[in-house]
Write a structure and sequence with these properties.
The chain is α+β, with helices and mostly antiparallel strands. The chain has 8 helices and 20 strands. The protein has helices at 12-23, 40-43, 58-81, 101-110, 142-155, 199-202, 265-278, 324-339; strands spanning 3-8, 28-31, 47-48, 89-90, 93-95, 116-118, 131-134, 138-139, 159-161, 166-172, 175-181, 184-186, 188-193, 213-223, 232-235, 238-242, 247-251, 286-297, 304-307, 314-318. The chain binds flavin-adenine dinucleotide. Flavin-adenine dinucleotide binds next to helix 1, helix 2, strand 14, strand 18 and helix 8.
Length: 354
Amino acid sequence: MSLDLLILGAGVNGLLSALQLAREGLRVGVVERGEPGRESTWAGAGILSPLLPWDYGAEVNALCARGVALWPGWIEALRQAGTVDPEYSVCGMWVHAVADRPRALAWCRAHGWRAEAASSAPIGVADANEGIWLPDVAQVRNPRLARALTEACVAAGVRLWPNTPALGWDVRGESVAALRTSTGMLTADRYVVCAGAWSRDLLPEAPARPEIHPVRGQMLLFRAAPGLLPCVLYRDGHYLVPRRDGLILAGSTLEHVGFDKSVTTEALGELREFALGTLPALEHADLVGQWAGLRPGSPDNVPCIAAHPRLHNLFLNSGQYRYGVTMAPACAELLADLMLERPPRLDPAAYRWP
Ligand SMILES: Cc1cc2nc3c(=O)[nH]c(=O)nc-3n(C[C@H](O)[C@H](O)[C@H](O)COP(=O)(O)OP(=O)(O)OC[C@H]3O[C@@H](n4cnc5c(N)ncnc54)[C@H](O)[C@@H]3O)c2cc1C
């Protein structure tokens, strides 16, 4: 099959870009070094919102807001495709002890976020303090979302090459002629790098390369009774996220340790102390997991969604850092707008090649 487009990396950004462009009628392939969706996309908490939106710039919030608006449509598309249920739910987020609450509330009002000042948390949280309740915040369950997107790609005719590392490029003049992989050369009319934290190293030479670097995030998993925690809870840089079946995630760390995905006893102690100090009922819950993922870190959390400055048929969609799941539908949409040369919904200048 000759391909219009070959995507490198099958995380949420590669898979959703593939689905978006397959929907637009392109013949799409995806090359993945391991199993689809098993890196940062698998490891994340699945909160569909910036943690403290009032602390981020317009570039981040524009992608997040558009992503949040587009997710319900994608969830419906997954349902229609008969995939595994990604457990999307609008559960709300309680932000504990907001530093400058009047400023944060004013920001929410000005930017169309429903937000309520509240003097106590909606649940039995220790030391409940002046907080903000954001009722519209939703979540997805990451491993299930990754499976659902993979299944939807197959159903949409996207050709997947799992366990196939990309090794380099065959560049001819001003364009890419082929992608060299562990199983041989693959060719397409156009190529997109969506390789998360590994994206920068995979890009062919350019006058400048986007500053995408790995940022490790560790997470704990508790098994509690379903319903113990009804909403996402954010407190002092950490959060708890409840799943439908009673599992509760406690995250996360932000560590600059290169491509090291190991877990540490320090993070175990830090996250356990936060979780039990915040929700004392977790004392009786089993701690059933700890893992780490590598976020595609970028300056100010602003991804690069743009064409390569020299190679006209190569694009990049990466650097979503802490909000790659939230932003993914908006990034895929912007990528499609650029590739199909139609007026972009969001201003691409904010996400240009540096
Ligand atoms: C602990 C933690 C918590 C998080 N919580 C949230 C949250 O609550 N909300 C939110 O929106 N975001 C969250 N994130 C961030 C989010 O998970 C990421 O931004 C997002 O998953 C990035 O997706 P991606 O597709 O760009 O990268 P990835 O999911 O990392 O996918 C990149 C893919 O490229 C593949 N690849 C790499 N090199 C090659 C190669 N040479 N050849 C072929 N394939 C290759 C990899 O194997 C991988 O599958 C969190 C992340 C972590 C780690």
